[in-house]
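A brief tutorial aside. Many learners find it easier to grasp structure tokens once they have seen a single protein encoded end to end. The record that follows does exactly this for Aldo/keto reductase. Read the sequence first, then the structure, and try to relate runs of similar tokens to stretches of the chain.
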Amino acid sequence: MKSVRFSKNTNVPPIALGTWSWGTGEAGGKTVFGNQLTEADLQPVFDAAMNAGLWLWDTAAVYGMGSSESILGSFAKQHDAVLISTKFTPQIAGDHDNAMEELLEESLERLHVDHADIYWIHNPADVKRWTPQLIPLMKSGKVRHVGVSNHNLDEIKLAASILAEEGLRISAVQNHYSLLYRSSEKAGIIDYCTENDIVFFSYMVLEQGALTDKYSAQNPLPSGTRRGEAFGPDRLAKLESLIHVMREIGSKYSASVAHIAMAWAIAKGTVPIIGVTKTSHVEDAVKAIEITLTTDDITKLQIAAEETDVEVPGEWEKAMH
């Protein structure tokens, strides 16, 4: 499997695997996705991914308030090759100078590792306050690479300048990016990342199921969940024309709609983070990596997406442009 150059000593797979929906705590699988997944449910998923060469796992302390990290940690200790990506969320931090270190230590304990391969500031609550707290963590080796998530271009540049004063750098940016939500591209963030050797990780590439062809106005997403509220029957109806184009392009590659959504994100120079709860999701990721879309395919997809006039930011997001 081809890989993406991440640093001098580290390559990452072309798709990372997300664990937001693992575990049942607050802001986790049950409330966001309608899932109630246990270690027993997820062990085969982890095993299938590692066997397929997908070894980068993305989680956060706030996902299920620790339950996602705990499940991933129980699996990660079985494999030396696992790369761990987890996040510091300012909103759950204490009001003191080592609040980030405190939360990182709790994450590392749950994950059964002594360092985070990528440690993200989850959102830009206060760039000048939180970015400097990464510096001692990087110098101590507890954080190998730094990422910023949900930051706009000015915030990314500010964080980069703070780290540069200590001879350090941002290695990754992680923002919501999909056929329906290209805000980071339009704001110049993806170009900035390319120019500065920063890997752009795209999350919600499948729009939490809305771009998989598994749901429709007649077969809606689970009610009472974040994704069900974001993509109700009216919005799903507006997506039918885009789904049709995705099906047509998929037929050329013996691929599904979900495969095409992921392949598009890869073709745009990003590393998609795909939530996985079944072994079939791992198989889908592998298939998407094998697809090389043409320029014409990409143009058709983007025109069809824009014509839907559907753009659904997360309630935690602000406009990037």
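Self-check: The domain at 11-209+269-291 is CATH 3.20.20.100 (TIM Barrel). If you spotted this yourself, you are ready for the next section.
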